[in-house]
Amino acid sequence: MQPSKGRPPRDGAGQESPVERLDGVGPAEETGHLRYDDPWYDALASGWGESAGAAVPAPEVVPSARGEGETGVAAADVYLEVQRSAAFQEVRRQYRRFVVPAFVAFFAWYVAYVVAATTAPELMARPVLGAVNVALLAGLGQFLTTFLFTWGYSRHARLRRDRAALDLRWDTQELTRGVNGGVS
Amino acid sequence: MTGEHQTLALLLFSGFVAVTLAITTWVSRKRRGSAEEFYAGGRLFSPMENGFAIAGDYMSAASFLGVTGLIALFGYDGLLYVVGFLVAWLVVLFLVAELVRNCGRFTLADVVAARMRERPVRIAAGTSSVTVSVLYLVAQMVGAGSLVALLLGGTSGAARAWTVIGVGALMVIYVSLGGMRATTWIQIVKAVLLLGGTIALTVLVLVRFHGDLDQLLLTAAGRSGHGEAFLAPGLKYGGDWTARFDFISLGLALVLGTAGLPHILSRFYTVPTARAARRSVVWAVGLIGGFYLMTIVLGFGAAAIVGPDAVRGSNAAGNTAVPLLALDLGGGAGSTGGTVLFAVVAAVAFATILAVVAGITLASSASVAHDLYASLRRRGGKPRSEVAVARVAAVGVGVVAIALGLLARDLNVAFLVGLAFAVAASANLPVLLYSLFWRGFTTRGAVWAVYGGLVPAVVLVVLSPVVSGSPDSLFPNVDLQYFPLQNPGLVSIPLGFLAGWLGTVTAAEVPDEAKHAETEVRSLTGAGAA
């Protein structure tokens, strides 16, 4: 859980255990100059708005990373740091943990449906109830699973990722801003 | 069709045109002409608004006219399209929507170029985006043409040609004057109209059968002349193995193509955050799913009430099944109800075509101006405003689409859209997924992935029975047919992925670790997102 891998000191608190963060518990108090209970507010309070153009909450530092010359290199380091941080790894793990199995499941189910429709029409034509046959049920089943997967994905993202991702967003922007010398 | 039909439909349609033009003017009144506004509408749409707009962009004439026609003619095999169109949204939702919103600014190429050498990647991605858009546009133009042919009676070539030209001119006006903001509002208005029309027709069909879906299906099967086989797969894509592989190919293209459609990708840039992008997809899935469920009822309804013979008699490809159904549901030809309903449906279909065409034109003009022009113009030349270039590009894209639309008028609209999906899935999807998820991806890999999917897809279409060598081809008298399948997806999609992999492993270039980190962090957190 120790965050510091030689990252710039000012973000020390930003990369604490993601578990705490998800529970809404503030980060470790030892560094204590950043709190995450309300990311929007705290991001502002911790110097987010201090540079020029403070009126615009949208990131002025859009790291287009192209043609930014000397500062580009440093900004790249920031992203590498963030990528290695525990908090980011957790967000990525949560994303993959849902998306990989869910993608495999729906894609296999869809391909199976298409292949069955073309190679086994007799099976698909088997009547189930009145005019309704296996093929119609499978087609409607595809609709149903699509709705379910959509619901499941958005629920998972809302509960498991959104908050941590938002924290990371502000931290990262803070860092790139710091690297770029606060000039935007 | 009678004069009343024409007058009423034209009146309603003029009403829609007037409203949309009013929106365009109103929206562009305090325009500042920034690229942000022109391409992304200021990024301030709400998820619900964007959800409706996505649905409006996606529920094209191909679905409303083409798919219902296919169901009316071939029964269950038409329904397979609908399933593919909907399931595709899971690919978009899981892998694309949020990440693209976070990484890009206006186009697909933005996402890829952030990691790679910019110029070759932009040119490649820009080229493929424009190709996909033009193919998709042609499908919409053909839809407009067959609709007006029905409306004005007979198949007067001149009337069709003028419709296609008129639609093209209108879309250029919308796009070049109103940009994304006007286009989005037009999509929203259109989505509401289309859903309203579809709900009304579905209710009427169900009322006709007293809510008995079983009866509806049995009647459809009975009138089709195929009996039970009408309700099972195989009428269109059964038979020999060529047809079966053709279908699998189409199925793959449909489910993987949506995530590579430029006009769909550009919709995610109109909302402020990735979370809003996700919520707009959820809205869109609900709306689109509901819509497609209703088109199934309408398709079988058309088979049961109008009958496949009458549908085929009006338009061989089935594109006019829904208007005919409306005419019958309203009380038949000559009755007031029939006239009104027919006119409403025709106007809604026109509105649909116009809105979709505007959306695609905008996306492709963004590709031309933001990717191609920005990369290809001479260094040191006087830089012109990108938005001005985009406006000119909209005109150019419009002209090309009109010309091709006049050429391809006898093909089924849903089928043409299938081609556009195949090209999108082969050329755009591999490069997009590799850039987002593959650490070792390189510039050469990116360029190869695009061309390695685009070139086979286009070449295979040219060599397919669609273009030549069979009586239904574009050029029946020429025989260039060397590829048996109508849809190239089965071959070209794996080729796209393979080429991207091959280009990457053979490249001397060392993948930029830091750029990958940046893409990954930005895509999942939204840091630094525009």
SSE inventory with pairings:
The complex is a heterodimer of chains A (184) and B (530).
Chain A: H1 18-22, H2 39-48, H3 69-84, H4 86-119, H5 121-125, E1 127-129, E2 132-133, H6 134-179
Antiparallel strand pairs in A: 1-2
Helix pairs in contact in A: 2-6, 3-6, 4-6
Chain B: H1 3-27, H2 35-40, H3 47-58, H4 61-74, H5 76-103, H6 108-113, H7 118-151, H8 157-208, H9 213-224, H10 241-257, H11 262-265, H12 274-305, H13 308-314, H14 321-329, H15 336-376, H16 386-407, H17 413-437, H18 443-462, H19 489-506, H20 513-525
Helix pairs in contact in B: 1-8, 1-15, 3-8, 3-12, 4-5, 4-7, 4-12, 4-17, 5-10, 5-12, 5-17, 5-20, 7-8, 7-15, 7-16, 7-17, 7-18, 8-12, 8-15, 8-16, 9-12, 10-17, 10-19, 12-14, 14-15, 15-16, 17-18, 17-19, 18-19
Keywords (chain A): Membrane, Transmembrane, Transmembrane helix
Transmembrane segments (chain A): 98-116, 128-153
Pfam family, one (chain A): DUF485
Compact overview of the structure:
The complex is a heterodimer of chains A (184) and B (530). Chain A is mostly helical.
CATH homologous superfamily label of chain B: Sodium/glucose cotransporter
Largest pleated sheet of chain B:
none
Shape of chain A: elongated
DSSP strand content of chain A = under 5%
CATH topology of chain B: Sodium/glucose cotransporter
Q: Beta fraction of the residues of chain B?
A: under 5%
**Residue-averaged pLDDT of chain A:** 67
Number of domains of chain B: 1
Question: What is the overall silhouette of chain B?
Answer: globular
| SSE class of chain B | mainly alpha
Number of strands of chain A: 2
Oligomer: heterodimer
Structural class of chain A: mainly alpha
Would you identify the CATH architecture of chain B? Up-down Bundle
SSE pattern of chain A, N- to C-terminal: HHHHHEEH
The stretches of 5 or more residues of chain A where confidence is low (pLDDT under 50) are 1-70
Q: What share of the residues of chain A lie within helices?
A: 55-70%
Enumerate how many helices of chain A there are, as a single number: 6
